[in-house]
UniProtKB/TrEMBL annotation:
Sequence ranges assigned to domain Protein kinase in this UniProt record: 35-127
SUPFAM superfamilies cross-referenced by the UniProt entry: Protein kinase-like (PK-like)
MF (Gene Ontology): ATP binding; protein kinase activity
Protein name: Protein kinase domain-containing protein
One Pfam family cited in the UniProt record for this chain: PK_Tyr_Ser-Thr
Species for this entry: Diversispora epigaea
InterPro entries hit by this protein: Kinase-like_dom_sf, Prot_kinase_dom, Ser-Thr/Tyr_kinase_cat_dom
Length: 127
């Protein structure tokens, strides 16, 4: 069962990388130990929300024609701020709980529900 889940996650990440047209659409596997200062900031019906500092940062460049692997990508700490979308950076796994975690852009103005409520009409779904 566990190997099936790992296989599904691996395939999801691989497919997302192969189909990424822009570098900001790449989803990557992020080792849990690449996060520091992890703090729970909210808890809801679907789970908990944590804030953490990502040591290496996200993928800044992605050459789809060369199909560069993660090892050849430039990693950068700069965070792009997009007012109209919440960026999905990748997936990690908590080694203590064995649970998979989606790594999303931090939204300082509230949770996803509040963001969608306040900005739904301005969201560009094609980005």
């Amino acid at each position: 069962m566990l190997s099936q889940v790992v296989s599904i996650v691996d395939k999801f990440i691989r497919d997302a990388q192969l189909n990424a047209i822009w570098y900001n659409k790449v989803i990557e596997w992020i080792p849990y130990n690449k996060f520091k200062n992890i703090k729970e900031i909210a808890k809801g019906g679907f789970g908990s929300v944590y804030y953490a500092k990502w040591i290496d940062g996200y993928i800044e460049r992605w050459d789809i024609k060369k199909n560069n692997g993660i090892e050849t990508m430039t990693i950068h700490l700069k965070i792009l701020n997009s007012f109209y979308s919440i960026r999905i950076y990748g997936i990690t796994k908590d080694p203590e709980t064995d649970k998979y975690i989606m790594v999303l852009e931090y939204m300082p103005d509230g949770n996803l529900r509040d963001y969608l409520k306040n900005h739904f009409d301005n969201i560009n779904w094609n980005d």
